[in-house]
Amino acid sequence: MLSTEENERLTRVGPGTPTGELLRRYWMPIATSAEIGPRPVKKRLMCEDLIVFRDGNGKVGVVDRQCAHRRADLSVAICEKNGIRCGYHGWLYSHDGQCIEQPAESRLNPQARIKAYPAEELGGLVFTYMGPKPAPLLPRFDLYVWDNVLRDIGHAMVDCNWLQAMENSVDPHHVQWLHGHLLNYWLSTGGSTEQTGLFTRKNVKIGFDPFEYGIIKRRVLEGRTEEDDDWKIGHPVVFPITLLVGGAGIHQLQIRVPIDDTNTWHIWYNVYRAEGAKPAKQTIIPSYEVPLFDAKGERIVDFIDGQDVAVWAGQGPIADRSKEMLASSDVGIVMLRRMHKEQLERIAAGLDPIGTVRDPAVNRCIELPIEHNKLGETAMFRSELFKHQAIRHSPIVAEINAMFDAAERDDLVTAK
To answer: Of 233, 242, 303, 329, which has the fewest Cβ atoms less than 10 A away?
Structure first.
């Protein structure tokens, strides 16, 4: 358990809070590229109200939502070649927040400026950096830069603190019950004869190892050995807000972006990679909303991610960890909290936190470890994900399946 004071320290993300200052040392997704067009878009990130825009040259920018003049909302603005112009009185701001035109004034006031943050696009997402300068490099993780793949981006707003989602990522034992037994119970009580056996197997051993970007998770399932990918390779929690999962050609970054202290933008960044396949290059990476509530306003729990969100939010807007009772199986949660506190100490000492990238040579393509034969069942794993995971809502499911089917037919021909 944590004291109330410790819980506040690890969960709150506003400017000036300990964890808010830590998270501002990392590039954060703020939008999908596809949603930033000719009109500015309102966004909220770590308790700050911001505008994301694309100028006339196609460059994205992130600025304060309010104009410096009379606090007009810059969502009512004009995106121009060199910046964003307030629709109220025409004040024009460059990407760095400096006001460069004041049409009704005889002299430009050099003190007129608004808050602005660096912004970059990568892999169909818009990222911003809200911390002290010099900014580190935006990490080019492999999923963002691979060629010959298909991508899509699912997303949803989750009504709880970001840390509840991240602590779930270092809790392997929940898979057997929440995504195995509960899923089967929900399917059977809903009239379905379908059952899943993939996620009901017990973990006989779990392990967690720190690495340069966070924590590697490992497990040995009943009937499997330490020679299996789930133990030998594992998969990572990329500190502070990302989990990488996947297998069987499906790779998924689950990114938990803190909107504020009690709301999280959850992103499912999906990459589909079939051996030997060369799908047509996507000009736009499609994005879609993952529904979490049904027509009656009840949480949808017949799929893995809906189950996760239901239990995260069920802990309350911010889980009261002063009332929890951790057990020996919660070793991963203990490690994550310890890592979190260590990074708070590092930035207090003027050091970079874990995972900071400043070397361009390192940043060409950062490969993250991931199992290939997930849970020992490659074909079944892919099938289960398309039925019981957020990717079932992808608008390109048919295209994805066609790519995998074609690759498997080519493998059969080659084998003959």
So the answer is: 329
| Start-end of H helices in 127-261 | 142-145, 162-168, 174, 182-189, 229-232
- In this predicted model, what pLDDT tens digit does every residue of 190-200 receive, in sequence order? 888 888 878 88
Contact 7/322 with Cβ under 8 angstroms?
yes
What is the per-residue pLDDT for 191?
81
Strands (E), 273-386: 287-289
Burial group, residue 67, by CB count within 10 angstroms (0-12, 13-18, 19+):
buried
Instruction: Determine the Cα–Cα distance for residues 341 and 327; give it in Å rounded to an integer.
Output: 20
Q: Give the three-state DSSP class for 33.
A: helix
Using DSSP's 3-state secondary structure scheme, residue 251 falls into: strand
d(CA 138, CA 26): 8
- Return d(Cα 128, Cα 242) in angstroms, integer: 16
Report the relative pairing of strands 92-93 and 83-86 from DSSP bridges. antiparallel
Could you tell me the CA-to-CA distances from 120 to 37, 53, 95, 107, 127 in Å, in that order? 15, 12, 12, 33, 5
Report whether the peptide linkage leading into residue 172 is cis, meaning its omega lies within 30 degrees of zero: no
The one-letter amino acid at 5: E
Instruction: Give the pair of three-digit tokens for residue 330.
Output: 């919660």
pLDDT(378) > 70 = no
The answer to whether the CB of 268 falls within 8 A of the CB of 252 is yes
Predicted confidence at residue 376, as pLDDT, reads: 58
Summarize the chain as % helix, strand, coil (round to 5). 30, 25, 45
Q: Across all residues in the chain, what is the average pLDDT?
A: 95
